[in-house]
Amino acid sequence: MNSYILDIQNLSKQYPSGHKALNDVSLQVERGKILALLGPNGAGKTTLISIVCGLVKPGPGSIQVDGLDVIRDYREVRKKIGLVPQELSVSMFETVWDTVTLSRGMFGKPADPVYLESLLRELSLWDKRKSKIMTLSGGMKRRVLIAKALSHQPDILFLDEPTAGVDVELRRDMWGLIRRLRDNGVTIILTTHYIEEAEEMADRIGVINKGELILVEEKNTLMTRLGSKNLILELAEPIQQIPEALAPYGLTLSKDGAQLVYTYDSHAGHEISVLLRALQEQGIEYRDLHTRQSSLEDIFVNLVAEGV
């Protein structure tokens, strides 16, 4: 069995308008992992998902899902995929139960009311199973989209901005559900504007900008490699300027002169003791010090700005 459930090679997409949405994108996703795709609006995230799911015709390149070609083996591929789109794509006049039952049947799966009941209970929708979708709140409608996408028990689930416009409590519930799906072997690819969502849940992070995949890396590796730490020194007495002898450390001084900030990577701990000794030699005393680790948001903003 191929360890990659999704294998995209050299995929490009240009629309008739001339807009190049994707440029030579290659991406491999391992089974049972959560990949978060980050990128600004118009970066190409939704186009990429739509092509894999068969909603948009691909350009040059190749795409395989579980070893199957998305064009040649379209029907088999589609059975393996669940998609939760950004926009509501359900009939407002159907009940929740009818929606998930119909969706399962459309993928050729036999009726399984026991599974569908457990799915609706998992999504806190069981009590709403007889309700028409038009009567539900926005958050509940979002849950129905997820139930619909999971009704045929797909191997890979695409979530396009799954928590956009939902409250914090519902977002946390969805994070829990996504983790449980991953633990049960479902591969999950999500796009999100919420950096904390990716930082909280993803195993790997992909950054896409202007149709190009800038990088794909293990989250922890990415944060170690590109993340930086700030050592913040609260000075005992304010200083007017940083002494020339401390210039090699690239320190920044706060406007009130009461705080020095030293930026370093996670492997440079030994340099701190050298810095503190240099401060002492310059007669600069500090009353407190603490560190701040870069967040994934800091890293993402820097990557997009630099076009790494």
UniProtKB/TrEMBL annotation:
<dbReference type="InterPro" id="IPR003593">
    <property type="entry name" value="AAA+_ATPase"/>
</dbReference>
<dbReference type="GO" id="GO:0016887">
    <property type="term" value="F:ATP hydrolysis activity"/>
</dbReference>
<keyword id="KW-0067">ATP-binding</keyword>
<dbReference type="GO" id="GO:0005524">
    <property type="term" value="F:ATP binding"/>
</dbReference>
<keyword id="KW-0813">Transport</keyword>
<dbReference type="InterPro" id="IPR027417">
    <property type="entry name" value="P-loop_NTPase"/>
</dbReference>
<keyword id="KW-0547">Nucleotide-binding</keyword>
<protein>
    <submittedName>
        <fullName>ABC transporter ATP-binding protein</fullName>
    </submittedName>
</protein>
<dbReference type="InterPro" id="IPR003439">
    <property type="entry name" value="ABC_transporter-like_ATP-bd"/>
</dbReference>
<dbReference type="InterPro" id="IPR017871">
    <property type="entry name" value="ABC_transporter-like_CS"/>
</dbReference>
<dbReference type="InterPro" id="IPR050763">
    <property type="entry name" value="ABC_transporter_ATP-binding"/>
</dbReference>
<feature type="domain" description="ABC transporter">
    <location>
        <begin position="6"/>
        <end position="235"/>
    </location>
</feature>
<dbReference type="Pfam" id="PF00005">
    <property type="entry name" value="ABC_tran"/>
</dbReference>
